[in-house]
Amino acid sequence: MEEKPTRKSSPPIKVYCLPDERQQVQAQADAAGLSLSAYLLRVGLGYEIHGILDHRRVHDLAKVNGDLGRLGGLLKLWLSNDDRVAGFSVATILALLSKIEDTQAELRAVMTKVVRG
């Protein structure tokens, strides 16, 4: 039975480019999370290249989401007339709502950075 050819056993395609062009293509491959070879193959075959998300920003989003969850939990406790929050004043609740709005703004800012890079 005949073995199926592999990429490693096939002849490579050479691309001549200037150092700054290579650096540009390498940067795009890095942004997509691909090796230079995999990036060029996918572009050459007409595949759409999707960049990878910045893991630091995704971590930031997760933290902000956790903050919103905790703030929402406090608000829910207050709305349910739970004894643990009976001493909360209207000013405290308004401050909590303000903090939720601020956190939502922070979440939007981080999402904008993720989308626009």
Briefly, what is this?
Helices cover 64% and strands 0% of the residues. The protein has four helices and no strands.
Q: Can you give a write-up of this model?
A:
The protein is mainly α and 117 residues long. Helices cover 64% and strands 0% of the residues. It is built from four helices and no strands. This is Protein TraJ.
Chart the SSEs and their pairings:
Blueprint: H1 19-32, H2 36-44, H3 55-79, H4 90-116
Protein name: Protein TraJ
InterPro entries: NikA-like
Give structural attributes.
about 0% strand, NikA-like, mainly alpha, Protein TraJ, 4 helices, about 120 residues, 2 domains, single chain
Strand content: under 5%
Please mark out the parts with pLDDT under 50 across 5 or more consecutive residues, or reply none: none
N-to-C span: 50 Å
Oligomer: single chain
Number of strands: 0
Instruction: Please report the number of helical segments.
Output: 4
3D shape: elongated
Q: Provide the gyration radius in Å.
A: 25 Å
Total domain count = 2
Please tell me the overall pLDDT.
84
Helicity, as a percent range: 55-70%
Order of helices and strands: HHHH
Structural class: mainly alpha
Question: Mind summarizing the main beta sheet?
Answer: none
